[in-house]
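Page 47, continued from p. 46.
Same chain as before, 110 aa.
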Amino acid sequence: MMGIAMIAFACAYFIKPIPGFLAVAFVTRFMQGFASASIQTSCYAITSIVYPHKQAAIIGYIECCIGVGLVLGPVLGVILYQAGGFICPFIVSGIVFMFASFFTYSYIPP
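Result:
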């Protein structure tokens, strides 16, 4: 859902009337927020189920990855913006989120 919402937000750039753009932008950002909250919550729940004996270490790895993402995300966003304009960072991150979701779905045990 996160990847679809990011790509839809990028496509909102092409909506010319301001009220239409604002409506699509608010809806897609709401979807991104909902998906982000779901992802963060489920990461910790899955961690406690899959790795019960290494839970503290795995949560540390998750927090480390979040920190690296918070540091590198704006840098990569600026590079993508310079390379392809406003929609490029959203399209690329949407595609990355969709690939990551398929990989995660195949990796997590049932």
